[in-house]
Each structure stands twice: as C-alpha cells, then as structure tokens.
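As a point of orientation, let us examine one representative protein, giving the amino acid sequence and backbone structure tokens.
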Amino acid sequence: MKKRVIIAGASGMMGQLLFQLCLQSPEIETLTSIVRKEGSIKHPKLIEIIHSDFLDFTSIQSAFEDQDVCFFCLGVYTGQVSPAEFHTITVDYTRAFAEMLRRKSKKTSFVFLSGQGADSSEKSPVMFAKEKGIAENILICLSFDKLCIVRPGYIYPSSPRKEPNLSYVIFKFLYKYLARFVYSNIGLTSENLASAMFFAGLKGAHKLILENKDLRSFDEKSGGFLNQ
C-alpha cells in the first residue's frame, strides 16, 4: 500500500532532499508539506500547506489526518538566533507539530532529525545538546507507532549551498581530509543521511536512536543498515 507522508522543514538542506525522494518514489501516494512560504515546485503528489504559526496547527489540523510517515527536519543552526528563539524552534515547534500529528494519525512512523551529542538527560551545558535532548524526550513520551531519532555528526552538503557561518565554510573544506585520515565517523554526506532517513521512515529502523555510525552504515544497494 502506498504511503501518505507529511514533512516539516522542506526548505532546509535535509528537508529538500527528503522532499525530492518522496516525490520520486513510487511508494508515496501523497506528500503534505507544511511551509511558511509557497514553494516553486508543483507535483501531482504534493499537497502544500502554507501556515505561519508553528506553535498552533489547529487551523490546518485536517492536514495531519491519516499520515503514515513524518519527516521532521525543521531546525536552526546554533548562533543564528537567540537562545530563547532556539528553544522555541527546537522544542516548542517540535512539540506542537508532533502532538497534533499524534492526535490526528493513529499510526505514524516519525523520523526526527536530531544531532550528534543530543543529551537525553537534558542537563548538558551545551545549548544544542540540551534542547535536542528535550525535543527527543517529548517525541518518545508521545508513543508514536514507530519513532526513529537520527543523530548525524557533521553533514557534508552533496550540492553547493551557502554555508551558515565561517566555521561551516572551514569545516566543509577540511571534512574529506578529516574523515579520511583523522576520524572516519566525524560525519556523513547529506545524500547518505537522506537515504537512511527515507528508508527508516518507509521500512523502519533497527533501533530507536541511529547515531552517526549507524547512519553511515546504510547501504542503498542492499537496502538496509549494515551496522545492526
């Protein structure tokens, strides 16, 4: 049976890749994308919902009905916004979206883009780790039919993009050297991550949290995770 998919964060690097995979896949019946601004892509599968308030989805709750898979890629880089706004985007947006989806869809495979170092104890002094840990715990408590939390390290962009800050410019330049000669598990490519997330959403994952090494083990040819 073909799947109904809902996605948040389709304008970001990972969201764009998953968006395209969904449109291209014969296994997907419809793709509902919740966005703030109208996109340029039109497709028979695509249901684009323009919505401004990501703390309240009541007015578009019908869009959350009977969804089989959710890819939640909404987020912001550390340093781009104030700590308070980072919490709102990382935690409160996730909570509002997930709670609405949980109410309107009885069986959903929820795939959440977290990050390496996310702290489940919620005590980390590092803002990113603490806030992602809080968001993860919210999702776990909602008891989705299936939940997969992905924690990638550095995500090397497979396509050209404008880097968010100087540190990302430098790290992108050094990544291939570091991954080859220093520490192979330092990150993975955006395409590899998108393929792993897409598979986890449609077919399931072998555990709740997929760390960077698990994500790197995904093999498209065999159609599964080698590190199991």
In short: DSSP finds six helices and eleven strands in the chain.
